[in-house]
């Protein structure tokens, strides 16, 4: 079983719609969680950290469910520029500062 | 946010040659940098953790004699792919943590180096 698993998609989303997807992690001791965004042939960029109480940044909402070991990302009012691969990233407690990446969920926003 | 650069951005080389990739933190000091590899349509896989002034820590399955890492200063880490072969063709990305202030827990990624071995 992979340490961090994501639905690869693609999620085809009409412009203006809402899309949500999850990521599951296997290490129950994982400490920190992030969503990164990666555009084609580019480096990943931090979208947002995920806090235990859930957090929102503009049109993006992230939630953490420790009991079921998953995190989620919701994008409201999707823009064409939201088209990208969204990487779920986990920092397992025992791994120090190392990050474990999920395979990514591809989102395509269409007019 | 903090800036990490990589050089070169793209390299094409013949099989059997060695390629050096540089990773620099431009506006902060990084005692630790990370090297990742990403094959097409796959996620980033951590290859090694580069520690300033000491030996790198390699992930399981990564050959330390093939992927030489040197972290000689607080702003520069280099990855040398020795005797490169076509299967080493990949997107190599480095990252660094900025230990100061607000961005303490964030890793900043370089723009990546696309290596093609013929």
In short:
Chain A is mainly beta. Chain A has no helices and eleven strands.
What characteristics describe this protein?
heterodimer, A: 111 residues, 11 strands, B: 118 residues, mainly beta, 7-stranded mixed β-sheet, 51% strand, globular
Task: Provide structural commentary.
The complex is a heterodimer of chains A (111) and B (118). Chain A is mainly β and 111 residues long. Chain A has strands spanning 4-6, 11-14, 19-25, 32-38, 44-50, 55-57, 60-65, 70-75, 84-91, 100-101, 105-110. Chain B is an all-beta fold and 118 residues long. In chain B, the strands form two sheets. In chain B, strands 2, 4, 5, 6, 9, 10 and 11 form a seven-stranded mixed beta sheet that branches. In chain B, strands 1-3-8-7 form a four-stranded antiparallel beta sheet, with no helix packed on it. In chain B, β7 and β8 (76-81) form a beta hairpin. Chain B is globular. The mean pLDDT of chain B is 90. Chain A binds chain B through residues 32, 41-46, 49, 87, 96-104, and chain B through 1, 32, 34, 42-46, 49, 91, 93, 95, 97, 105-107, 109-112, 114.
Question: Which percent range fits the helix content of chain B?
Answer: under 10%
Strands of chain B, total number = 11
Question: SSE string of chain B, helix = H, strand = E?
Answer: EEEEEEEEEEE
Distance between the termini of chain B: 36 Å
Number of strands of chain A: 11
Any idea what the shape of chain A is? globular
Low-confidence stretches of chain A: none
What structural category arises from helix and sheet content of chain A? mainly beta
- pLDDT average of chain A, as an integer? 92
Q: Helix segment count of chain B?
A: 0
What oligomeric state best describes the polypeptide chains here? heterodimer
Strand content of chain B: over 45%
- Approximately how much beta-strand content do the residues of chain A carry? over 45%
How far apart are the termini of chain A? 37 Å
Low-confidence stretches of chain B: none
DSSP helix count of chain A?
A: 0
Mean pLDDT of chain B: 90
The profile of the biggest β sheet of chain A is: 6 strands, mixed
Class of secondary structure makeup of chain B: mainly beta
What Rg of chain A is obtained from the alpha carbons, in whole angstroms?
13 Å
- Largest interface pair: A-B, 18 and 21 residues
């Amino acid at each position: 079983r992979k340490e961090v698993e994501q639905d690869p998609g693609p999620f085809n989303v009409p412009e203006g719609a809402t899309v949500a997807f999850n990521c599951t992690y296997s290490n129950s001791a994982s400490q920190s969680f992030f969503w990164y965004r990666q555009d084609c042939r580019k480096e990943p960029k931090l979208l947002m950290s995920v806090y235990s109480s859930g957090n929102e940044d503009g049109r993006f909402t992230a939630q953490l469910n420790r009991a079921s070991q998953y995190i989620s990302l919701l994008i409201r009012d999707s823009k064409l520029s939201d088209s990208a691969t969204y990487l779920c990233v986990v920092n397992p407690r025992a791994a120090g500062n190392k990050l474990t990446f999920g395979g990514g969920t591809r989102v395509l926003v269409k007019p | 946010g903090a800036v990490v650069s990589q050089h070169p951005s793209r390299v094409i080389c013949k099989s059997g040659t060695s390629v050096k990739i540089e990773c620099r933190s431009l506006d902060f000091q990084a005692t630790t940098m990370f090297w990742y590899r990403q094959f097409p349509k796959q996620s980033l896989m951590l290859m090694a953790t580069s520690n300033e002034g000491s030996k790198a820590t390699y992930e399981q399955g990564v050959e330390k004699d093939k992927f030489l890492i040197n972290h000689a200063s607080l702003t520069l880490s280099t990855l040398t792919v020795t005797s490169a072969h076509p299967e080493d063709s990949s997107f190599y990305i480095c990252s660094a943590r900025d230990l100061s202030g607000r961005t303490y827990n964030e890793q900043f990624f370089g723009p990546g180096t696309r290596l093609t071995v013929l």
